[in-house]
Amino acid sequence: MSASALTLEPSALSPTSAMTSESAFPLEIYEHILDFVVAKDVDRSVWKRTLASTSLVCHGWHPRSRALLFRVLRFGVADEETLRRLRDHLLVAPHLAVYVEEVRLIHRPEFSRLLDSFPRWLAVYLPRLGAIFVKAEGSRTLDMHRFFCLPSVRETSEFEGLLLPYPNARVLTLHQVVWVDRTSRWKGKGFPRPFRVPLALTELRLMLNANGSRNIHIVNRLNFEYLFQACKITLSKLLLNLAPVRILTLQFQDAYPLNVIEFPHLDDLHLEIFMAPGLETRFRDGDRKPIMPYAEVISLIPRLLRRLNAVQLRILRLSFSAPDIDLAPDAFLDHLKAIHEPMHEMIRSSWFPRMKVITFDLGHRPRDIPSWQSRITTECLPELGKVVSIQVIPHDTLSEDISAPTCTLGSITDSVASG
After folding, report:
1. DSSP assigned state of 377
2. What's the pLDDT score for residue 382?
């Protein structure tokens, strides 16, 4: 979305307007309503107009509206001029910087200098920045980037340079970020090395748009593992979708075994088995080459869990795609039965001694939940249900947070004028 589409008039955040009569409800009630508007999955233009309108109604609503508008910054124009303008605006109105809690970098091939420029320009101007979102659109890989390239990875991880300027950053989301794929120019130029310094991340999200076959490479697996090592002391929440799970569970060479991954403080693990093939083996159009059968997709769950040493893990969230399940619900339940024994054995043998809850998000409507709850607990996982709580929950995925409310440079420009 362009900056002009999100631009606010200077009067939109003006605190001069006030209601003539005193409200019957306390201010906190209205603030919760504003929070709810932004939290819901609504079109960006809708919530942007809503906040602009509500800030005109009452002087007391102005602070919360502005805080919500600037909580997330999204860079859709990634050139040095834009970054310089943003820096200049923050110098003029430093009070706006305290609202910024998350920055999202949308990396496009035509703007390849974004990730190189961002940390050096803005680190000192965003003291409250707590979350960084990096999305690499298309199939572009980091080894084709002039800064994020394998020679620099050999000396240190590139994300040290991205995160170290922001000591308060606790959440990192990498969407469609890989180092090598089957079409890239990697020719055995060297393998990555571990991070030189630890990262103080408490939440990490790794997501790829494909089912993983394009990105299956030992370099990608090693980089994921080194990222885990760098933040293992502080990490409490981890989200992986299907492709990273595949990459982390495949044995590439005897020289790089699937060693145990240490997560001493991991409390919440979320696995999204989305964008998987159907429940039966399908074929790609044209070449008739079979893709991954769903039985193998489901089996990745216990295979990944065996790699983890996470003695503090309490919550395991499993999310699945409703269209895949609806193709053959009985077959899906049969696949769950196949992983019942290995998962029950891990829990019973104190592999995860603090495990309390396993949730299933099947992508279905709330009215379907009782039926699925009954079938999963009685037909698929009866013994597992005796040692942990098994819950089927309404559809709610962190991956959809990609489209959450954002604020572009145009919004900051207009708000500087209004103070």
Report:
1. I
2. 93
The dihedral built from the CA positions of residue 36, 42, 48 and 53, taken in this order, carries a sign that is negative
Confidence (pLDDT) at 214: 66
Tens-digit pLDDT profile for residues 358-373:
999 988 778 889 999 9
For residues 108-131, b (16+ Cβ closer than 10 Å) or e, as one string?
eeebbebbbbbeeebeebbeebbb
Cα angle 35, 41, 46 (rounded to 5 degrees) comes to: 75
What are the backbone angles phi and psi of residue 104, rounded to the nearest 5°? -115, 125
Beta-carbon contacts of 16 under 8 Å, excluding residues fewer than 6 positions away, are: 59
For residues 141 and 245, what is the distance between their CA atoms, to the nearest angstrom?
A: 19
Q: Which two tokens stand for residue 220?
A: 């990608």
Parse the chain into domains and list their residue ranges. Answer: 275-396
Closest CA to 317 of 280, 274, 264: 274
Residue type, 218: I
DSSP 148: S
Pick out the chain residues at pLDDT < 50: 1-21, 41-43, 77, 110-114, 139-140, 143-156, 277-290, 397-419
Q: What confidence tens digit (pLDDT) does each residue in 42-68 have?
A: 445 555 566 656 665 666 666 666 677
Distance of alpha carbon 370 from alpha carbon 377, whole angstroms: 11
Strands (E), 274-328: 308-309, 315-320
Nearest Cα neighbor of 265 from 201, 343, 171 is 201
Helix H or strand E encompassing 352: none
Question: Quick one: which of 135, 179, 138 has its CA closest to 158?
Answer: 179
User: Whole-structure pTM over 0.85, yes or no?
Assistant: no
Residue pair 309/263 in contact by the 8 Å Cβ criterion: yes
Spatial distance between the Cα atoms of 1 and 3, rounded to a whole number of angstroms: 7
The radius of gyration of the chain's CA atoms, rounded to the nearest angstrom, is 23
- The pLDDT assigned to 155 comes to 35
Residue appearing with tokens 């020719």: 187
pLDDT of residue 233: 95
Cα–Cα distance for residue pair 108/23, rounded to 1 Å: 47
CA distance 346 to 340: 10
Work out the number of other CB atoms within 10 angstroms of the CB of residue 327: 14
Task: Indicate the residue type of 419.
Answer: G
Rounded to whole angstroms, the Cα distance separating 415 from 3 reads: 13
What pLDDT is recorded for position 292? Answer: 65
Q: Two tokens at 139?
A: 């199939």
